[in-house]
Amino acid sequence: MQSELELLRQLVRIRTENPPGNDYREVATFIGEILTKAGYEVSYIEAAPRIVNVLAKLRGTRGYPTLLLNGHLDVVPAGEGWQHPPFEGVSDGDRVYGRGTADMKGAIASMIVAAQRIAQQPQAIAGDLLLAFTADEETGGLNGVKFLLDKQLIQADFAIVGEPTDFEVRPCQRGALWLEIEFRGRSAHGSLPHLGVNAVEMAAEAIAALRRTCPANLSHQLLGSPTLSINRIDGGTKVNVIPNRCRIEIDRRMLPEESASEVEAAIRSTIDQVKLPGSEYALTRMIHAEPFELVAGQLRIAEYCEKAYKQATGRETARTGELSFTDARLLVREGKIPTVIFGPGLDSVCHITDEYIAVNDVIAAAEVYYLLVHDVLG
Questions:
Q1: For domain 175-289, which CATH number applies: 3.30.70.360, 3.40.50.300, 1.10.10.60, 3.10.450.350?
Q2: In three state form, how does the secondary structure of the chain look?
Q3: 120, 128, 298, 334: least CB-packed within 10 angstroms?
């Protein structure tokens, strides 16, 4: 059986950048062969050409309950400026550097090692263990977890998504609504601005107003307050031409008590109030990820995670909220599976140059997941 470190290095060396996100066969086959050899029933699910997800099941003696361990295979593009090669899994002290080490091939390596250990004594578990290593999370998960849910290939009683939380247990998650708004005015010569309708000025008025649309009275104990940021703007063609088009992109993060339809309606209403005479605008949803929060009767899986972490490390962990959006939202909202986000690594190093994870955390996670599986399925 490979060590956690060796397995992580091999996973990092298989490039799965998304975008382009157009080939997962190599990494899916690599994982599938390991788990087949360990005794799992393995299947490869192709959501689109070369977009491959891998499922592996170990059946317990009773077949109930089912625990799902999930991780995504894709990583964001490496970019430039690395001190360590992004796809070699270089070790430096207690850290392994590379794209996807924290987000989230470190957790995948830990899950695989734990799964191998469980398979050495399959009679020790009564319930079924299901592993789903999926594509496409970095661009919304439509060809990954959502595809598998739509095909009814994922059914479980509890789920763990191993995103990097530094072993904090996260039973809730903010939602996200990404919007593109294009403002349309009328061109004119720069010396005759009164003959035109300035789309850039309209965008500026809208931006100032939109920043006040987040409800000031909303706050969540674990997720904080909702946020809105305008993160892209593009408009105009030349300094002496009144611009007839300007486009902005908005990132609105939502709390569980908010809905995307209500948020979008508030944004439209705000723009309507500041719209210049003779102008128009078009609003398009880019990404819509609903928030979630487990309720009292669903929090048993969080308790299992806390217990396993203390057994493995002797330390307590904390319950916090996930501020970004992950595939956990799909498992909870569409799959109706009580799910927590719980894994090794720091979310602060995700997507950065010289991303890394501590080797000791990957080793600890393998032990935590092993104990967790035994507790849930034993």
A1: 3.30.70.360
A2: CCCHHHHHHHHHHCCCECCCCCCCHHHHHHHHHHHHHHCCEEEEEEEECCEEEEEEEECCCCCCCEEEEEEECCECCCCCCCCCCCCCCEEECCEEECCCHHHHHHHHHHHHHHHHHHHCCHHHCCCEEEEEEECCHHHCCCCCHHHHHHCCCCCCCEEEECCCCCCCEECEECEEEEEEEEEECECEECCCHHHCECHHHHHHHHHHHHCCCCCCCCCECCCECCEEEEEEEEECCCCCEECCEEEEEEEEEECCCCCHHHHHHHHHHHHHHHCCCCCEEEEEEEEEECCEECCHHHCHHHHHHHHHHHHHHCCCCCECCECCCCCHHHHHHCCCCCEEECCCCCHHHCCCCCCEEEHHHHHHHHHHHHHHHHHHHC
A3: 120
